Amino acid sequence: MRMTALPPPWDSVDDRLRARGLRWTPQRATVIEVLAEADGHVSGAELVERCRLRDPSTIPSTVYRTLDVLEELGLVRHGHGPDGREEFHVRPVEEHGHLHCAECGNSWELGNERAAAVADALRATDGFEIDIGHVTLVGRCRDCAAGA
Amino acid sequence: MRMTALPPPWDSVDDRLRARGLRWTPQRATVIEVLAEADGHVSGAELVERCRLRDPSTIPSTVYRTLDVLEELGLVRHGHGPDGREEFHVRPVEEHGHLHCAECGNSWELGNERAAAVADALRATDGFEIDIGHVTLVGRCRDCAAGA
DNA sequence: TTAAATGCAAAGGGTTTGCACCGGA
DNA sequence: TCCGGTGCAAACCCTTTGCATTTAA
Prior knowledge:
The structure is a homodimer. By secondary structure, chain A is an alpha+beta fold. Chain A is 43% helix and 20% strand. Chain A contains 6 helices and 7 strands; from the N terminus they run H-H-E-H-H-E-E-E-E-H-E-E-H. Chain A has a 3-stranded antiparallel sheet. A 3-stranded mixed sheet of chain A has the order 5-4-7. In chain A, strand 2 and strand 3 (86-90) form a beta hairpin. The termini of chain A are far apart. The structure holds a DNA duplex.
C-alpha cells in the first residue's frame, strides 16, 4: 500500500514513471505535490516558486525538466495566457477554454458546453479540431463592449 | 506633394505623427518601409532583422519603440503566435484569425467569414467580443485529425 | 529652442543547456 | 552497476530601460 494522500491521477505517478524506465525522485515528488494542489493553471515560474516554499533547495531546471516529463505522460499540458506566456494546465481539470478581456483585464473560463459551440464552428467550416485550452482568447467582455 | 511610393495607410504616417507632436525620422521611415512590404505578420526580431538589411545601423530599441508608437496610431497590432511569441499584425490586412496545426505544424488563415462564425458563437453565449486576430488558434487540421 | 528620438549598453525575465556528479532501480 | 536525474552556472532570446547625446520642428 502507498503512504501518499495524493488524489488520482497523481497517486500513481511514481509507478507510471518506473514503468517507463524513469525514476521517482524527491524532487519530482515535490513538483507532483505542488501540482496536485494547483488545479487550474500555473506558469513555470509560479511552480518553481511554490516548490521553493516546500523545498528551498528547488532548482528551476529540475522543475522544467519534470514538467516536460509530465507533459509526455499526459498529466499536464502547456498553453499560453493572454500575454502569450507559457502556462501549464493541470489535470484532472475538465477541458475548457479561457477568455480574457483586454479592456478590464478580467478572465473567465469557457466551460465545456460553450467551448463546444466554438469548436463546432471551426469544425464545420475547416474540419479543424481546435485545442480550445491551448490559448487564451482575447477580446472584450460584455460589459466593456457595452460601455464603449 | 509627397515623394514616397508607399501605399495607404503608410503614405500619410509622417503627417499623422506630426499631427500628434511626434517626429518623422529616418529610422521610423525605415521601419515603415519594411512594414509596408510585410503584409501579414512579423515578429519584433524579424522586423529588426529586415530593417538591418536596409540600414545596418538599425538599433533594436528604436524599432521596438517605433512599434509602440505605431500600435498607438492603430497601424499595427500585436498578437501571439502558436508558441505564444509576440507578433505584429500589419495593416491594412483584413481582420482575420490564424489556425495552427500542432501535429503537422502548418498554419492557415481564418478568413473574415469563417472567423465570424467563431465570433458569433462566443457572442451568443457570453456576449464576449473576441479579438479573433489576437491569438493563433491551435489544434489539429482536417488531415491530421483524420489520420489519427 | 526644446522636447522628442536615438544610440548604446546594460538589465531583465523566464526558460534552456552543458556537464560533472549523484543516486534510484 | 548503470543510466537517468540533479545541481549549478552560464547561455539564451527577445525585449525593455536608463541616460547622455542628437535632431526634427
